[in-house]
Fold this sequence. Notes:
This protein is mostly helical and about 80 residues long. It contains four helices and no strands.
Amino acid sequence: MRNLKKLEKRLLGMHKDDPAKLVLIRLVKSLCLKEDFNLSEIYELSYDDFELALDIMKDWRLDCYSKTRERILEIVTT
């Protein structure tokens, strides 16, 4: 869950047009909505954001009922 909170802070601190933010948003939306995501997009991220994306995918499987997931879904859908 710590990585999802890290993602939440990261998304809230990024400019709305930041390409990395858009990739992370697409990743989270695809996880939330169980849609396809082109994994090659995460290779465009900085190393720290790339690691965060990988950690998010790992944690996503474990945090099925986390409140953090709900807050992140709100962030990426507004």
